[in-house]
Amino acid sequence: MSADESRWLNDEEHATWLALAGLMVQLSSALDAQLQRDAGISHFEYQVLAGLSMAPERTRRMSTLAAFADGSLSRLSHTVKRLEKQGWVYRTPDPADGRYTLAVLTDTGWDKVVATAPGHVAEVRRLVFDPLTKAQQKQLREAGHRINKAINPDTRCPGAGNC
């Protein structure tokens, strides 16, 4: 598409885009700051621990966990290495297919998630849910599903089937 054929944003779309872009940056930073302050971990580390805590037997393949936490396999490997040093996670070959590596949440890691989750949920509630009406929450959920589907048609939304 040439510059002459570009579908430029109108004023309302531009304002919506700037609000969304600001939200993505500021919300991520705010959640990261809360987790660092209260639990000494990053938001990405929490996503990894939470992803394992919700998995059967607290275990996921590293590739699946990377997708869940929305990070590269390389980033996840570095993060899991740090979490292993804390005793919260360990890695083991997948007995069903040795080409894969499993990440497993330890009992100590479970305790970390249990201790961290209430503060994180309170911050999510304060920043995302409290400012919105029930109708706005539903609209946000539906918009999120539609945007996720546009980004990746194969995306599956936890607890909601396909986005």
Poorly predicted runs are 159-163
Secondary-structure element sequence?
Answer: HHEHHEEHH
- Quaternary structure state of the chains depicted: single chain
Helix count from the secondary structure assignment:
6
What is the alpha-carbon Rg in Å?
Answer: 19 Å
Coarse structural class: mainly alpha
Largest sheet data: 3 strands, antiparallel
Give the N-terminus to C-terminus distance in angstroms.
28 Å
Number of strand segments: 3
| CATH fold topology of the domain at 21-116 | Arc Repressor Mutant, subunit A
Shape: globular
CATH class of the domain at 21-116: Mainly Alpha
CATH architecture of the domain at 21-116: Orthogonal Bundle
Overall pLDDT level:
93
Domain HTH marR-type: 17-149
InterPro entries: HTH_MarR-typ, MarR/SlyA-like, WH-like_DNA-bd_sf, WH_DNA-bd_sf
Protein name: Winged helix-turn-helix transcriptional regulator
Organism: Streptomyces phyllanthi
